[in-house]
Automatic annotation (TrEMBL):
It comes from Chanos chanos (Milkfish). The gene is LOC115811579. This is Alpha-amylase. Residues 1-15 form the signal peptide. Its cofactor is Ca(2+); chloride. Residues 423-511 form the Alpha-amylase C-terminal domain. It catalyses: Endohydrolysis of (1->4)-alpha-D-glucosidic linkages in polysaccharides containing three or more (1->4)-alpha-linked D-glucose units. Keywords: Calcium, Carbohydrate metabolism, Chloride, Disulfide bond, Glycosidase, Hydrolase, Metal-binding, Signal.
């Protein structure tokens, strides 16, 4: 009996590690600051047809509106209520998006901001995305409602009321993160309000959550909230499916709070992944691609089945959060495509692709003066739609990394090789590497300053394959380089260090 109960508990909690993706799809794309109407269209015209598993959306809850004089992206991390109107659209548009994305097999994951409400200095009035009244001064959010009783301040022991020292666990979890009013999640009432918010979204059809700022919440409190969550909507998910949970915990080592405290509750963001990969791609500190032979747990990362990984996120692509200067982003497009390609080819973790908007980056002494800039918007502060150009790229300042051929084709690669082992590793002891995924896919990367010219065992059945980086299979034809794999699985590769994209990838579905 005890064993059975234990197995049930484990089953219940570990179910939250499963992204619930459909049709063998494996990757999530973060459509940062996109409008719900644009995401709905993108699911139907692009994400569904190209095998994307799901979308991480920006926080849908009502937030403060900060205009000084333009609206920063980060206002959405300051909730005012759990009403579902935000800069991305209203509740009807949100519901329409969830329905339409689900109908084409693309999941929606909500960025849930449940650690706090707006900043203590947020003033009072109706400067909020649904025009709801609040008072940060009196800690009153009548539309939830929360009152001053629902915040942690009594438990915080710092002079400022803010987190001053990340070495002190009590501060990190009971004080205000950058001045944000810290909710008291130990209170049953607060847990109930948060769970109601998340359950409303689950009932609307979302597949799970990115939970913001988990380091700043006690794991026991989070467990109590997750325990109240409904199963997923059976219109799109099999009965008994639990919401996928991936928790934002920044653990680069060096602080007492560890990612592992959250493993039992769901997956956790592995921030070491992008920080280290950036260092390797940039060849800083003597790092080389050849050192990636034991990439993953071998590098001191968390277990693969607990990890959510990414090359960059909405914070560290602009110097917020953690990771620092090594993080590779769309600003370094050539390195970025290689880094994302490598991540998607490698079996470690659940992968998330970033999709950004451009801003006027202006770095002075290592700090981006414009790190606050919000999405492309009209004069009245409303977010602009995402226009699609004839060549399938995006206009109006939307970068759409997920539409770059090299990245989109590697999202497909990951689906094709899903479940296959990491195999046939090769390196030149420098920055040329290759590896396969069983007999389903193979990737070769040249990040050295000289040509790669080598014959390798690919593990693939003999035949002619189309490289999905320089082009792709189009009907029966290949628009890129071709790779001949012999009956013995060996193939010859040549990659100039001056190629536009110095890497090649082939997979079972790119066979001609
Ligand atoms: C805004 C203003 C603030 C103002 C506040 C309230 O910018 O000046 O005080 O409003 O009025 C986002 C923005 C914030 C913004 C906030 C609310 O980034 O600028 O504040 O919205 O509008 C910590 C948290 C982590 C958090 C990250 C940004 O642990 O959870 O800070 N990320 C999430 C979201 C993020 C959002 C929030 C949370 C809030 O993704 O977009 O903020 O909802 C150390 C710690 C980390 C800590 C970082 C940064 O990292 O370990 O836990 O992240 O510091 O404070 C090395 C170390 C590494 C260290 C890093 C930086 O790399 O190895 O551990 O240095 O020191």
């Amino acid at each position: 009996m005890k064993v059975l109960i234990l197995a049930m508990l484990l089953g219940l909690s570990f179910a939250q590690h499963n992204p619930n993706t459909k049709h063998g799809r494996t990757s999530i794309v973060h459509l940062f600051e996109w409008r719900w109407a644009d995401i709905a269209a993108e699911c139907e015209r692009y994400l569904g047809p190209n095998g994307f598993g799901g979308v991480q959306i920006s926080p849908p809850s009502e937030s403060i509106v900060v205009s000084n004089p333009w609206r920063p992206w980060w206002e959405r991390y300051q909730p005012i209520s759990y009403n579902l109107c935000s800069r991305s659209g209203n509740e009807n548009e949100l519901r329409d998006m969830i329905t339409r994305c689900n109908n084409v097999g693309v999941n929606i994951y909500v960025d849930a901001v449940i650690n706090h409400m707006c900043g203590a200095g947020g003033g009072e009035g109706r400067h909020s995305s649904c025009g709801t009244y609040f008072s940060a001064n009196r800690k009153e959010f009548p539309s939830v409602p929360y009152t001053s009783w629902d915040f942690n301040d009594g438990k915080c022991r710092t002079g400022s009321g803010n987190i001053e020292n990340y070495q002190d666990v009590n501060q990190v979890r009971n004080c205000r993160l950058v001045g944000l009013l810290d909710l008291s999640l130990e209170k049953d009432y607060v847990r109930g309000k948060v769970a109601d918010y998340m359950n409303k979204l689950i009932d609307m059809g979302v597949a799970g959550f990115r939970v913001d700022a988990c380091k700043h919440m006690w794991p026991g409190d989070l467990g109590a909230v997750y325990g109240r969550l409904h199963n997923l909507n059976t219109r799109w998910f099999s009965p008994g499916s639990r919401p996928f949970v991936f928790q934002e915990v920044i653990d680069l080592g060096g602080e007492p709070i560890k990612s592992s405290e959250y493993f039992g509750l769901g997956r956790v963001t592995e921030f070491k992944y992008g920080a280290k990969l950036g260092t390797v791609m940039r060849k800083w500190n003597g790092e080389k691609l050849s050192f990636l032979k034991n990439w993953g747990e071998g590098w001191g990362f968390m277990p693969s089945d607990k990890a959510l990984v990414f090359v960059d996120n909405h914070d560290n692509q602009r110097g917020h959060g953690a990771g620092g200067a090594s993080i590779v982003t769309f600003w370094d497009a050539r390195l970025y495509k290689m880094a994302v390609g490598l991540m998607l080819a490698h079996p470690y973790g659940v992968t998330r692709v970033m999709s950004s908007f451009r801003w006027n980056r202006h770095i002075v002494n290592g700090k981006d003066q414009n790190d606050w800039m919000g999405p492309p918007s009209h004069g009245d502060g409303s977010t602009k739609p995402v226009p699609i150009n004839p060549d399938s790229t995006c206009g109006d300042g939307w970068v759409c990394e997920h539409r770059w051929r090299q990245i989109r084709n590697m999202v497909i690669f990951r689906n094709v090789v899903n479940g296959q082992p990491f195999s046939n590793w090769w390196d030149n002891r420098s920055n040329q590497i290759a590896f396969g995924r069983g007999n389903r896919g193979f990737i070769v990367i040249n990040n050295d300053d000289w040509d790669l010219d080598v014959t390798l065992s690919t593990g693939m059945p003999g035949g002619t394959y189309c490289d999905v980086i320089s082009g792709q299979k189009d009907g029966g034809r290949c628009t890129g380089k071709q790779v001949q794999v012999g009956g013995d699985g060996r193939a010859h590769f040549r990659i100039s260090n001056r190629d536009e994209d110095p890497f090649i990838a082939i997979h079972a579905d790119s066979k001609l």
